[in-house]
Design a protein that fits this description.
By secondary structure, this protein is mostly helical. The chain has helices at residues 2-39, 44-47, 66-80, 99-102, 105-113, 115-121, 123-132, 143-160. It contains eight helices and no strands. The termini are far apart.
């Protein structure tokens, strides 16, 4: 009987010590996480609405490059149209109507080519993920092709909204 009481006491004491220790460790971890996130500086590219990735400056021109528009449309049809419409209709992902008026060219191209990092670090991309509740897959689109998709979006915005590239002005 004494052995049973002793064993029960030891087990209960062990559980108590373990539980207290894990809370303290958890508390220390969350404190460390807070300090790390407070120290983490927001990259200038995110502050400027350009996202995260290799595109820091993208030149757009008028008139539109019709060859690029055609190539961009073909890529859109093949890799994007299942989840995104050219209207403002949300399907799996957001609709593209007006995207060049809401997002800078760098942001659009970084999202197309660097989706995993954008979703991890860019607040705008994270907000879109929350709204759509589906993570955009990495389509392995090359930088040149991303530029052609952007040109197609610019043409789409002119046709659907009557203006393009308004995000550049902000």
């Amino acid at each position: 009987m004494k052995t049973l009481k002793f064993l029960t006491t030891v087990i209960l004491a062990s559980i108590f010590i373990y539980a207290c220790g894990s809370k303290e460790q958890s508390s220390n971890e969350s404190e460390t996480d807070k300090q790390t996130s407070e120290k983490k500086e927001v990259p200038e590219s995110i502050k400027m609405g350009k996202g995260v990735g290799e595109f820091t400056e993208v030149e757009v021109s008028d008139p539109l490059n019709e060859e690029w528009v055609a190539r961009g449309e073909a890529i859109y049809d093949m890799k994007c149209s299942a989840c995104h419409k050219l209207t403002d209709q949300k399907v799996v992902g957001p609709g593209f109507q007006g995207v060049t008026n809401r997002r800078k060219p760098e942001w659009i191209m970084n999202m197309i080519t660097n989706v995993d990092v954008m979703l991890a670090e860019d607040p705008t991309a994270q907000k879109l993920l929350e709204e759509c509740m589906t993570r955009m897959p990495n389509q392995n689109i090359k930088p040149d092709d991303a530029r052609k998709i952007l040109e197609f979006f610019r043409k789409n915005d002119m046709e659907k909204v009557g203006k393009k590239d308004e995000a550049i002005k902000s």
